[in-house]
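Summary for the funding panel

The consortium committed to producing paired sequence-structure records for every protein in the target list. Below we show the first two records in order, beginning with the earlier of the two.
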Amino acid sequence: MSGQVALITGSSRGIGLAAAVALAREGFAIALNGPFDDDELQAAVRTVQAEGVPVVAAPFDVADLDTHGAALDRVEATLGPLTTLVNNAGVGVMQRGDPLDVTEDSYDRCLAINAKAPFFLTAAFARRLLARDRDPALFHAVVNVTSSNAVAVAEPRAEYCVSKAAAAMSSKVWAVRLGRENIAVYDVQPGLIATEMTAPVIAQYEARAQAGLTLFPRVGQPGDMGGIIAALASGKLPYTTGQAISADAGMLVPRF
């Protein structure tokens, strides 16, 4: 898809990096983001460059709203006009436990990075698209990566659930606002995925998946999510927008 340019936040590892690789295989030029221009981000750049597409590192803190405009400027100066934003950057709770013991710092951190940052980065991205003529042959999209916890409570991670529910509603808000501009918006809600964030508990979830928690008896991999994100961002689900994709192997299907 020549001419497609994607910025993927939180893409130095995990789901974000898998999405970057999948999009590169669709021909997208890729801007990889992490909070710092460190060894991990540079290793991710090399990984995606191996797919044979233009790649640039775009280090900035998504929670620092003042950096958004300049970061988008730098990406476009190198790769050309952006067509695609994947809001993937996110954090977990500072400490699992009783919701009665949630600290203000942990609550604010989850809301700032998981909900506030993608809302305002989407606004900056959309204003940029609306201010210029766009090639109608190119597909323009925002893909937000939220969580099954946008709809299903995990009591020991209350503030995380609240932040992902807010991000999921933002996806609907932006789908409504941007639909008339021919910009699609999607919400990918991963379930049990083996990433650095879930590493401390993924073994127990693997056992629960095999015991029937998920309809497919396994936990998901970042590549599973990357394929979904790339399909959405490539316009492979035409005439759709505003959808929440439950990428959870059927975990939340009601059963009795």
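The next record, for a separate protein in the list, is shown here:
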Amino acid sequence: MSSIRVLKNFIAISRHGSVAAAAREIGLTAAAAGQQLQHLEAEIGIALFDRNKRSLVLNNHGRALIEPIQDIIARYESLGSGLKNELSGTIVLGALVSTLMGHFGKALDELKRNYPELEIKLIAGLSSDFLDQVLDGKLDAAIVTESPFTLPQSAMWTELYKEPMVLILPQTGQKRSRSTVSDETIPKNLPFIRFERKTWTGHLVDQTIKVNKLAMNEGMEINSVEAIIELVRQGLGYSIIPQLANVDWKHDQRLRIHTLPGKTIYRKVGLLERKRHGRQSITTAIKAQFLSALS
């Protein structure tokens, strides 16, 4: 019978698609991680990955085992936690980098203080990429923006907080104020730095431009809110982005923030998870932490 460590190794390899990367995560040598995978496949009697020179890709047999193995690990890690009345074990969360600058980072820190035996592993990425990883069981859950599309029936998304979409421009020595956009506000000599169109936040940028009937001098397209903010600070363009929560915008001496005159579009940030999974006690605690922090 395979040990919990062998099962955790399988989950880590399925998430990274690499024995070496999984080994670094769980503290093994690549050789030991590879041997554990071979042991598991030999014990089950089937190959769980399609192998090529550069990576391992879960096959149908491997994908079918993700959820039951995660459930076994969750049940094992929860042993004794009910007696101690606290959360323990490991949860793997996908998270937008920009959410770590918002309410999520603060709530996560509070959660760790409340439950010191809980290990939270964060994987950075984009909302659209996280959906498949959550559905495949590679991630227990993910902090993502609200999907512009209907989610599969096996998934659910719970809103945690929201951020208004705003126009940001470089500070040019004018009096600092939070003002409303007019035709004169949009700089004619600077390019518009757009968040990547195909992303979920990119859809919100498009929606904001259309609602406010703005004419943009299209320039760069980037998939990082943080990079966009820094480019605008350097005077290389202007942009429409979510006004990240918990960021001290008022004292940023290199940016001007403008509200938009039309309907306010919000980036809604929430927790994406499967309707049934082995880490629901932890995701429930995460959602409760936000309700507590925002009440």
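Regarding this second record: The chain is about 40% helix and 25% strand. The first strand starts at residue 49 and ends at 51.
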